[in-house]
Structure formats: structure tokens, C-alpha cells
Amino acid sequence: MSSPTESLLPEAAEPAVAYNPPVAASAPWPALVAISHLRWDFVWQRPQHLLSRAAQEAPVIFVEEPLYADVAAPTPEVLPRQNGAVTILRMSAPHGHDRAELDRETNRLLADHLASQGLGGYVLWAYAPAAIDLLPALPEPAAVAFDVMDELSAFRGAPPEILDQEARLLARANVVFTGGQSLYDAKVHRHGNIHCFPSSIEKEHFAQARTLTERPAEYETLPDGPRLGFYGVIDERFDTDLLRDAAALRPGWQFVMLGPVVKIDPASLPQAPNIHYPGGRAYTELPAHLAAWDVALLPFARNESTRFISPTKTPEYLAAGKPTVSTSITDVVRPYGAEGLVHIADEPAEFVAAIERALAQKSDKNWLQQVDIFLVDNSWDNTWANMRQLIVAQLRNHTR
């Protein structure tokens, strides 16, 4: 597995999840072992949304790749989250320690933990294709689910073996999910039980931005003028040239880029008096920042790493009632651009013109009504309930 150096969020930043498990599942819901390329204490996104709901029914064991830190020797870590319903397992190791050895230690840590907990059957839930290499050291899972949230082979620093691992995991998985339509279109011919579950939202959480009047303190020092915001990971998928040129075209606009910088040199980011990088913020703080913005942005580059992305923040921005401007990311163009809910532009002058149209849209009640109609059934609760139903079907097949 491979992940960036990350700016982690504290455990205290975890949001509460209120989820009512479906009543109609006759098969008991087992423990879930998740193998992830992301860390639990990072930006709160798809894995945390889904697995925190799974954890309300049975334990979730979240296996991270090794964390290189200032420690004297490799050290196993067992970290409770979500009031103990989620357990993070990982190895911390000195910088430069042999990765193959750490992967073997991670295997042993997981196998020993499963044995010590006496959990019986479990579902293996994979985000990282490297999960396939853990299976030989583990008891046979009751089902294997592969949630493909990104085309990881296209990301900077992807290990060369990832395509082979993905092929073997697809061959082993009982059910496959994709995080967007583009990924579904790319994978549908490779598995007989594959389902598209695009990014969902917690509408009530983000809808707070429509009524909040108090702004985070850092906005008090910004110059007057429209506030244009982005939140998320700032990495090789971010169009730094577009940001630089748009900010130069409108020096009276304030561009607030909220999030951790990973896999790219922070010094390479465009610098200007009207571009601001406040750093990462907890999921619970995002509505207050959205409330301070006039327009929300998705300034993604158009390259191999963004070819299949389906940004979770798109419906979140809309649920907050924020007019949104995006580059022509396929899963934003279809459906949000096609439905007239998001403005699409790629070149700096066009992007600025689209922002100007979005600024004029702030008080458009008809647009907001269209947004609410579009998002009416969009929720992580519904997404998880539907995924769960598909896994339960595999568990029933397993017990026959």
C-alpha cells in the first residue's frame, strides 16, 4: 500500500454518526476488517462515512499501512476510535525501515488481533488493492468487498505492483463498489457483481452553512471582496496554474484553499496577497467555513490522477447552498453540470467568468430548489444501507 505524508486530524474531531441499521436483515452482521490506503485520522471522507455506520452494528478493524515516525524500533499500535467501535491497527517504524518486513509485521498484527478478539466470521473490506496479499495469513473471510474509490494506479508514487494486485483482488472479491460513474464504466467489464455508489452527503450537517452567521476568526482579517473557497487535500490533482492565473485576473477576490498539502512541495503553490492556505480543518468545522464563502470551487487539474475522481465535496457544497464552479471533471460534468447545478470551466478567463455567474446566483431561489430536489435521496445512510444489503446477500450465499 502507498499513501502520502499526511496532516492528521485529532480523534476529537470525529463527528457523531446517527445511523439506524436496517431491521430486515436475517443474516447477523459480522465484524468488518478494512484495509485502507488512507488513514482514519485524516480528512473525513468516504471510508469514515461508510465504516462508522458499519461500526454501529459490529466491530470495525481498520488496518493502515505503516507509519514512519521518530521511534526506536517497529512498534505495533492498536488505537480505538468511535468510542471503541473502530480499532485502528498499524505498525509505527523508524524512517527508512524495510517496508517488506513491516508489511509482514502488519499481517501478523492483524492475524493476532483477530484471534485475540474471537470475532468468528468477518467481512474483508478493501480500499487498497494490497489487501489481496493479506488474505493468505488470515482466516477465510465470509465475504470480500472491494470499494474502489479512486484509480490508485494513476496517483503519484503508486507502487508498480498495484495493477497486478487489483486484478487479483477483483478476481477474489464477491462484490465490488465504485465511488463514481467513471470508475464504474472503467471496471464494469471486469466483475460480474459490481455496483456504482457515487459520493453521498450528510445534508443536515452541510445545510447548517445556509443559516450560520458567525464566521471563523481567520476571515475577519481578510480584505473585503468575494470569498471563494475550496476544501480538501491539496495534491497533484490540484490545478495550481489555474488558481494562480484566476487570482491574478481578479486581485480583489479572496481565494481560500483549505486543506492539508500532500505529495507536492508546498513551495510550489502559487503565492499572492489574495490566495490563502489556512491548512486542514476538521469535518465538524466545514459548515462554518462554507458559510463564509460566496462561491465554492473545484479547481482540479485535468490529468491521469483526476480522470476517474468523483469529488465528495460536490454534493456537500451544494447541500450548503453554495454556487459552485468546477473544472471539467467527468463525474462533476455528469450529472451536476448537465443538470445546471454546477458551472463548468477550464481556462482561467472562463473560470473567472463562471465565478462571476456563480456570484450572481447566490440569491437564486429557483436554483437552490433544483439543488434540493436533486439531493433529496442522497445520503450516506442510504448508500451504506444499500451496500450492506448487497453484502448480506453474499453472506447468505456463504452459509448455504
Q: Can you put this structure into words, describing what you see?
A:
α6 links the parallel β10 and β11 (254-258). The protein is of the alpha/beta class and 400 residues long. The longest helix has 20 residues, at 380-399. The strands form 2 sheets. Strands 1, 2, 3, 4, 5, 6, 7, 8 and 9 form a 9-stranded mixed β-sheet that branches. A 6-stranded parallel β-sheet has the order 12-11-10-13-14-15, with helices on both faces. 32% of the residues lie in helices and 18% in strands. α1 crosses α12 (380-399) and α6 crosses α10. The protein starts with 30 loop residues before the first strand and ends with a helix. The chain has 12 helices and 15 strands. The protein folds into 2 domains: 11-200 and 379-399, 3-Layer(aba) Sandwich (Rossmann fold), CATH 3.40.50; 203-374, Glycogen Phosphorylase B (Rossmann fold), CATH 3.40.50.
Helix content: 25-40%
Number-wise, the strands total 15
Structural classification: alpha/beta
Number of helices: 12
**What is the succession of H and E elements?**
EHEEEEHEEHEHEHEHEEHEHEHEHHH
What is the multimeric organization of the chains shown? Answer: single chain
For the record, the CATH class of the largest domain is Alpha Beta
Q: Please, what is the average pLDDT? A: 91
CATH superfamily assignment of the largest domain? Glycogen Phosphorylase B
Which stretches are poorly predicted, pLDDT < 50 over at least 5 residues? 1-12
Question: Which labels suit this protein?
Answer:
disordered N terminus; Rossmann fold; 2 domains; alpha/beta
